[in-house]
């Protein structure tokens, strides 16, 4: 597939000549002015822009300055029939122009420059990706150290089990106490398992884990029954809507960890609101199953939408550590899925994770088994 190249010139004849010379080597996009060029850049991934310097609506330098600011990895070149030292200096200093070429240009020489410009673009993109990977690895190493410390602190708090056993022995006939003891045992088991999971996460990074067939609807029902016991989640405002009974390949406790984190965040969004609900929806099509957690909170600040996935970024002040969504997304990605977050049109936020679905013949329930409107 030919790489795209944008040529900007207000003279039609020049556009025709340029296309004829280089359409064999590039997918040439044409614009007759700066504003049209910017619209094309917004719609296409363009490695190289070549602009004429003298145009009525915007000079080549002005265009390159905009491109440098909005599309920093797009390599910028200027063609001109006039030797203008001031324009050349502006092109270098303001537009960060890769090459300043005088007309008439020689086809072979300009082709060599264009091919080299594409290589420069690809090298810049690859270098940036490498820097991001290094930064991510550093963040993950820090995350691992923090996770190990958290696991240690949690394990130190698991001394409650002997007290539970003492209650069971001394008050076996007190039904209410026995219910609390059973809930405490279950919570203890979940915390103990969570510690093991955290340590496994620390040892294995993004983590090897055994994925087994899991009914997503059943997993959610069970997870929400436990989540409803958390005091930070508003009582009576957690609604479950099961629209499908898909089976996915997953690690049950890790997926429930994601569910609990999303519901907990939704509960935090309703903290100062008298009304509003948290809705958890399970649905599927032939290829995918998905879980959606929606809330009627204030939504996500537009300035934070891209940052919420960054490790250690939090809007909760001292109450948050900024690890939740980053860990959740990484868990879903180890399952071969995707996770997204957005502001809903009617207000509030929505987070969705999608996982590959096991076909019905291999375990997913038929449509007539679906249920709706279950409230927690």
Strand percent estimate: 15-25%
Gap between N and C termini, in Å?
53 Å
Class by SSE composition: alpha/beta
Q: Counting H and I runs of at least 4 residues, what is the number of helices?
A: 10
What is the alpha-carbon Rg in Å? 29 Å
Number of domains: 2
* Silhouette: elongated
CATH superfamily of the largest domain: Histidine kinase-like ATPase, C-terminal domain
Unreliable spans: 317-322, 366-376
Mean pLDDT level: 80
What is the correct CATH architecture of the largest domain? 2-Layer Sandwich
CATH class of the largest domain: Alpha Beta
Overall number of strands = 13
What's the main sheet like?
8 strands, mixed
Share of residues in helices: 40-55%
Q: Which fold does the CATH topology of the largest domain refer to?
A: Heat Shock Protein 90
The topology string of helices and strands comes to EHEHEHEHEHHHEHEEHEEHEEE
Can you describe what's shown?
- The protein has 376 residues and is α/β, with parallel strands linked by helices.
- The chain has two domains: 4-128, Rossmann fold (3-Layer(aba) Sandwich), CATH 3.40.50.2300; 212-356, Histidine kinase-like ATPase, C-terminal domain (Heat Shock Protein 90), CATH 3.30.565.10.
- It is built from ten helices and 13 strands.
- It has helices at residues 12-22, 34-43, 60-70, 85-93, 107-156, 160-170, 175-204, 216-227, 252-269, 324-334, and strands spanning 3-8, 26-31, 48-52, 75-80, 99-102, 212-215, 238-242, 247-250, 278-284, 288-295, 338-343, 349-358, 374-375.
- Strands 6, 7, 8, 9, 10, 11, 12 and 13 form an eight-stranded mixed sheet that branches. It has a five-stranded parallel sheet with strand order 2-1-3-4-5, with helices on both faces.
- Strand 1 (3-8), helix 1 and strand 2 (26-31) form a beta-alpha-beta unit.
- The two termini are 53 Å apart.
- Mean pLDDT is 80; it is low at 317-322 and 366-376.
């Amino acid at each position: 597939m030919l790489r795209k190249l944008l040529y900007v010139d207000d003279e039609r004849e020049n556009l025709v000549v340029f296309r004829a010379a280089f359409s064999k080597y590039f997918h040439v996009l044409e614009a007759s002015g700066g504003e049209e060029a910017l619209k094309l850049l917004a719609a296409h991934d363009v490695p190289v822009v070549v602009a004429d310097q003298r145009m009525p609506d915007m000079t080549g330098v002005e265009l390159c300055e905009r491109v440098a600011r909005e599309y920093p990895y797009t390599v910028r070149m200027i063609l001109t029939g006039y030797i203008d030292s001031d324009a050349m200096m502006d092109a270098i200093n303001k537009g960060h122009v890769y090459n300043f070429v005088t007309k008439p240009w020689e086809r072979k020489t300009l082709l060599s420059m264009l091919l080299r410009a594409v290589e420069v673009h690809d090298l810049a993109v690859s270098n940036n990706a490498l820097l991001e990977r290094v930064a991510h690895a550093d963040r993950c190493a820090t995350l691992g150290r923090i996770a190990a410390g958290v696991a240690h602190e949690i394990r130190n708090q698991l001394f409650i089990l002997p007290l539970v056993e003492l209650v069971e022995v001394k008050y076996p006939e007190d039904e209410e106490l026995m219910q609390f003891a059973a809930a405490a045992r279950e919570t203890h088991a979940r915390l103990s398992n969570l510690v093991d999971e955290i340590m496994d996460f620390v040892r294995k990074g993004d983590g090897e884990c055994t994925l087994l067939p899991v009914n997503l609807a059943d997993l959610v029902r069970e997870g929400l029954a436990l989540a409803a016991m958390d005091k930070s989640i508003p009582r009576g405002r957690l609604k479950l809507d099961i629209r499908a009974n898909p089976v996915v390949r997953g690690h049950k406790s890790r997926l429930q960890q994601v569910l609990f984190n999303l519901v907990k965040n939704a509960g935090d969004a309703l903290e100062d609101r008298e009304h509003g609900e948290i809705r958890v929806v399970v649905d599927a099509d032939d290829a995918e199953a998905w879980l959606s957690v929606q809330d009627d909170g204030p939504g996500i600040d537009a300035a934070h939408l891209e940052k919420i996935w960054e490790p250690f970024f939090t809007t909760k002040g001292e109450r948050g550590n900024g690890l939740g969504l980053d860990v959740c997304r990484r868990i879903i990605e180890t399952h071969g899925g995707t996770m997204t977050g957005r502001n809903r049109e009617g207000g509030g936020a929505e987070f969705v994770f999608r996982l590959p679905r096991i076909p019905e013949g291999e375990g997913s329930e038929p449509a007539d088994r679906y249920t709706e409107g279950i409230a927690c």
